[in-house]
Specification:
mainly alpha
């Protein structure tokens, strides 16, 4: 079937929503909203009010302001999550560089023999080359001015400019389990496999946040390992929807405990949810009951 639909003006988009039964309390405000948030971005937050997924007709008493409130909640949540992932990414980068370089020298990331899968490692090297060549950082330029070999600067310079995804692949593909355990212990994790699982998930979550994608009711393709017990404040893992956001928030909050001594991530998250009582936490995979009373959420770092 050939696609034949044409672009329509903002006012026509608004008319279409009204035809489908959506209540518009303030049309001027609604038009300003459509000019700032694309129609199809906003429809993500309208779907819960639909009575028919084929015709996109809305249930009675469905208001546009409900979707806008949900969009604003998701935007604040995304900002909070992205800030936490930044903390984790910087800390992970620092600890990988430190322990791996002490064990295997400044150019360990270039050595194919130190990695499990040669093909994955070569992909990482190709990505590193692209990222280093694109970098305008002075410490990269300084290396190029002063040295011709090796091709890349040492790890403490090179790995500061590679993507979180490349860093994650380097860690997970590394052969030396001993140094991986050292990094994991710095995050108060008893097994390095927990850290591997969590950073793979964090890369996906980070990319969603960076592209302003919906996260509040998203089903994530990669689900984090959820240990029953951990050394620091943690949660009960008996009642979960493992592909939803709550899992992701749990490992972020746990890792923050070893990074920022007075992190306000948990407090800010609890407050955001409390300030938006109309948002259904079950859509994000939160457990029933007083989830905020779990040690992870109730204990300040």
């Amino acid at each position: 079937m050939q696609y034949t639909k044409q672009a329509i003006d903002f006012s026509d988009q608004l008319s279409l929503l009204k035809q489908r039964g959506l209540i518009i309390d303030d049309e001027d405000k609604a038009l300003r909203c459509l000019r700032s948030i694309s129609y199809f971005r906003l429809t993500n937050y309208l779907v819960p009010m639909e009575s028919d997924s084929d015709t996109h007709a809305f249930r009675p008493n469905s208001h546009l302001h409900t979707a806008i409130a949900l969009y604003n909640f998701d935007r604040k949540l995304r900002s909070l999550v992205f800030t936490s992932i930044q903390d984790i990414e910087v800390a992970l980068r620092t600890r990988i560089i430190h322990y791996f370089s002490l064990a295997h020298g400044p150019f360990w990331f270039m050595r194919n023999d130190l990695f499990i899968n040669e093909s994955i490692h070569q992909t990482c090297i190709n990505n590193i080359a692209s990222e280093v060549n694109r970098s305008k950082e002075e410490f990269i330029s300084e290396y190029r001015r002063n040295y011709t070999s090796p091709e890349f600067p040492p790890a403490w310079k090179t790995l500061e400019v590679v993507s979180f995804g490349t860093l994650s692949k380097l860690f997970c593909n590394f052969k030396n389990v001993k140094v991986k355990k050292q990094v994991a212990r710095d995050f108060n994790l008893p097994q390095y496999t927990y850290l591997e699982s969590w950073i793979k998930c964090a890369v996906v979550l980070r990319n969603a946040c960076a592209h302003h994608a919906r996260i509040w009711n998203k089903r994530f393709p990669t689900m984090p390992t959820m240990p029953q017990r951990l050394p620091e404040s943690w949660v009960s893992t008996n009642s979960f929807r493992p592909n939803k956001l709550y899992h992701q928030l749990c490992y972020l909050a746990y890792m923050e405990q070893s990074i920022v001594p007075n992190s306000d991530f948990t407090e800010a998250l609890v407050k955001l949810v409390k300030d938006n009582p109309d948002i259904q936490t079950r859509s994000m995979g939160f457990p029933l009951g007083n989830w905020q009373d779990e040690p992870l959420w109730s204990t300040r770092c």
